[in-house]
Amino acid sequence: MKVILLGLPGAGKGTQAERVSGELGIPRVSSGDLFRDHQKRGTELGRLARSYMERGALVPDDVTIGMVMEWIADNASPGGFLLDGFPRTRSQAEALDEALAGEGGLDAAVLIDVSRAELVRRLSGRILCSRCQTPYNRREAPPGEPGKCDRCGGELYQRADDKPEAVEKRIEVYVQDTEPLVAHYREGGKLIRVDGERSVAEVGDALIRALQPVAT
């Protein structure tokens, strides 16, 4: 089962990817995970990706595609995989289609649908653990102790591209560069839409229900 999760920044892809991965028993990765891994190891790709992420801009396709295809080759299980945040452009989607052509292609592209106004509200309050990257929200899902991760005790911080001045730009970049891939998967009969403005549990339940026909 080969699945991708789509949605604007702040739609909850990371949270839902963790649940879907666990319930379906397939490995998952986000492009952000790959970028952070390369940055931690000090690779050239990692340094280049950081320069774009800090401005709230999309990392160039060739950089992202190289990281993701390497991960698929090394980590995909016989049961498939789940990609969170990749592809982000139509050209990336076409490259992924080509790479998976010999394996039956992609099974589903699930769009977590959230309005722009709701995303701005969510992103302005989002904070992450500097150690394990567990997400929190100052308004809706704060940590038990301010500034400290409940899971590992790491220090919490706000990503540069989650600060108010960068939020609107991130959303605008998505609309301009990423919406065409939604049309790509809709035209290919792979797109599944899920209302992302409900509770985390309700969105997760809807995702699992939507994917059950694909998994069987």
Structure description:
The chain is α/β, with parallel strands linked by helices. The chain has one domain: Rossmann fold (3-Layer(aba) Sandwich). Helix content is 49%, strand content 15%. The protein has helices at residues 13-24, 31-40, 44-53, 61-75, 90-100, 116-123, 164-177, 179-187, 200-215; strands at residues 2-6, 28-30, 81-84, 108-113, 126-129, 135-137, 156-157, 191-195. Strands 2-3-1-4-8 form a five-stranded parallel beta sheet, sandwiched between helices. A hairpin with a 5-residue loop joins β5 (126-129) and β6 (135-137). The mean pLDDT is 87.
Overview features:
216 residues, alpha/beta, 49% helix, Rossmann fold, 9 helices, three-stranded antiparallel sheet
Helix-strand layout with pairing:
Layout: E1 2-6, H1 13-24, E2 28-30, H2 31-40, H3 44-53, H4 61-75, E3 81-84, H5 90-100, E4 108-113, H6 116-123, E5 126-129, E6 135-137, E7 156-157, H7 164-177, H8 179-187, E8 191-195, H9 200-215
Parallel strand pairs: 1-3, 1-4, 2-3, 4-8
Antiparallel strand pairs: 5-6, 5-7
Helix pairs in contact: 1-9, 2-3, 4-5, 6-7
